[in-house]
Design brief:
The protein is mostly helical. It is built from seven helices and no strands.
């Protein structure tokens, strides 16, 4: 009841790919394969978040008509989808970690990193709706969405790679921690700056 059909398909693909990796690579090589698997799952997540329930809600006028402050409505609507995102991250990375032989810390960091990307992609969706909401072309909206997500993800990716390459926190743990530390503040700042998104439906052409 929490997951869409597309999300279920994506989860099955990710877990299935992890199973294939587990058969091909050794336990040490499986840790290196985590990078490719996490990148693939994050790419799929861009589509699932962009076409999820929250995006559907923003395309309808009903959320705008609720007699509550716009920022409160935005946070509550985000919290609803975040619950499913948290559960989705657990459902994906607990079996993936078991298949690849990852330690519990790496498993937890993968879950938190995926949740941080869910929050970041949701904030990117909010920003695109706030800035380009009157654009009628779905192709242009999709283009703006991907560009926005790439730009928003750069601080977290840069911080993660910096921690890894500098040797401060080498390995996947440093990369994942950097991603988490970069994604969450960026997402919250974007949400705050776009806090009046749900004040008037006319702002977004709804």
């Amino acid at each position: 009841f929490l997951f869409s059909k597309m999300t279920v398909i994506f989860m099955a693909i990710i877990i299935g790919t992890a199973f294939v990796y587990g058969q091909i690579f050794s336990e040490e090589e499986g840790k290196a394969a985590l990078v490719a698997l996490f990148a693939m799952s994050t790419y799929m997540q861009m589509f699932s978040e962009g076409m999820g329930r929250f995006s559907w809600e923003l395309s309808k006028p009903y959320l705008y008509l609720i007699p509550e402050p716009p920022f409160k409505k935005l946070l509550m609507a985000t919290a609803e989808t975040l619950l499913a995102d948290c559960l989705e991250a657990v459902v994906i990375y607990v079996p993936v970690s078991a298949i690849l032989g990852l330690d519990p810390l790496t498993c937890v960091l993968c879950i938190l990193a995926r949740i941080s990307f869910a929050l970041l992609f949701t904030s990117g969706n909010i920003m695109v709706e706030r800035v380009f909401g009157t654009v009628r072309s779905k192709g242009l909206m999709l283009f703006f969405y991907f560009i926005a997500l790439i730009l928003l993800a750069l601080p977290g990716l840069g911080l993660g790679l910096g921690l890894n390459i500098s040797g401060i926190l080498p390995g996947s743990a440093g990369t994942l921690l950097g991603i988490i530390a970069g994604n969450i503040p960026v997402a919250l700042i974007v949400m705050f700056l776009c806090r009046n998104l749900l004040q008037y439906a006319e702002l977004n052409g709804k």
